Amino acid sequence: MAVCHRKPPHALLVPYPLQGHIIPAVHLATKLASRGFTITFVYTEAIHHQTSRAASGVDRDIFAAARAWGLDVRCELVNDGLPVAFDRSLNHDRFMGSLLHVLPAHVEELIRKLSLHADPPITCLIADTFFVWPSTLAEKFGLPYVSFWTEPALVFTLYYHLDLLVKHGHFASNDNSKDTIKYVPGVAAIEPADLMSYLQERDVSSVEHQIIFRAFEEAKGADLVLCNTVQELEPETISALQLEKPFYAIGPIFPAGFTKSPVATSL
Q: Coiled-coil intervals in this record (predicted)?
């Protein structure tokens, strides 16, 4: 009788190229790999350069130690549209603009390559919620899209319900309302002054606002959302979001002793 050897699920995992997003994505990658996933972790060339330089001063594969533990975590690099030596911290708007307008084409090129040659085949896309392309590209290549949110569920739901904030005059208004916000599903009364800074602004023409608007339209197309939060801390918010789509609290994603992780994450 023939034995059927089922290939493991293979997730393409793309973190947002900022420090606070990379660290939880690395821990998600190793956690999934420890449960039998093959992971292809996608770095921008600039982030890989920074991480390697901070780790040892030489370019190296940061997941080598994870593979030595038997975890199948691979690494692919994409260009974010800017030279590696370009100072992104001093040219924030240009960097954000490149992530908005240029990076998606490079990610699409990578997915196309892997869809032809990856072994085992890519079976899903896990991407940071702040990207503006995941749902569109996942649909194009016939992949389930898992949105990875690295912040509390409360912050996710406020961005997710931007339309309600606009409708009630609390956002994108020439005179943003000062009334208490009581209408966002799963959110107790909250004062406008306690909203995230981007949601207190009147001028919403910045590149950051363009990213937020487009990213959360993409998030509405996600097959499910993984959130780095704790169920017991945000039960009402999570329950309300679960009425919108599958939404899972998987935090804290950081394991005990994570500061001594063999996978380099510091920039």
A: none
**In this structure, is residue 110 part of a structural domain?**
yes
> 25: which 2 tokens?
């994505």
Buried b (16+ CB within 10 A) or exposed e, 87-100: ebeeeeeebbbbbb
What are the tens digits of pLDDT across the range 90-118? 999 999 999 999 999 999 999 999 999 99
Residue 101: C-alpha distances to residues 51, 94, 131, 134, 260 (Å): 24, 10, 11, 14, 36
pTM: 0.93
* Total number of domains in the chain: 1
Distance CA 258, CA 267 (A): 16
**Closest CA relative to residue 166, chosen from 209, 136, 128:** 209
Question: Residue 86 belongs to a domain with what CATH number?
Answer: 3.40.50.2000
- Give SS3 for 149: strand
Q: What is the DSSP string of 197-214?
A: GGGT-S---SHHHHHHHH
- Which residues, other chains included, contact 38 with Cβ-Cβ below 8 Å and sequence gap of 6+? 8, 9, 10, 11, 72, 73, 74, 120
Whether 109 maps to a domain, the answer reads yes
